[in-house]
Design brief:
The protein has helices spanning 2-30, 77-86, and strands spanning 46-47, 54-55, 61-64, 71-74. It is an alpha+beta fold and 96 residues long. Bound molecules: zinc ion.
């Protein structure tokens, strides 16, 4: 009975390792667009125009630009305030 248990555990481990290996081979050989890419990597990062930090829009502080309709994303309210204070749509004009 114990032997049967050990054998089944061993088979499970081998099968798992085998499928992991197969996944790697498929991903390496495939290169098919739109497949085999985990959704976590598909999240497009936005760039904080003030400090240059890349953030996920879902976690960022958003600000709708006046007129343009584009949305700027910031890592913190501090950066957003800095951007608003800098104004005139020139992200890189920092005076410090
Ligand atoms: Zn920032």
């Amino acid at each position: 009975m114990i032997r049967f248990l050990l054998v089944s555990i061993l088979i499970t481990l081998v099968a798992r390792a085998f499928w992991r290996l197969m996944d790697g081979v498929i991903e390496a050989a495939g290169g098919r667009p739109g497949r085999a890419r985990p959704p976590a990597n598909a999240v497009k990062l936005a760039r904080d125009p003030v400090c240059g930090t890349f953030i996920a829009p879902a976690r960022a502080v958003a600000l709708e630009a006046r007129g343009g309709g584009a949305v700027q994303y910031f890592c913190s309210e501090h950066c957003r305030d800095e951007f608003v204070r800098g104004g005139s749509g020139r992200p890189h004009s920092r005076t410090s």
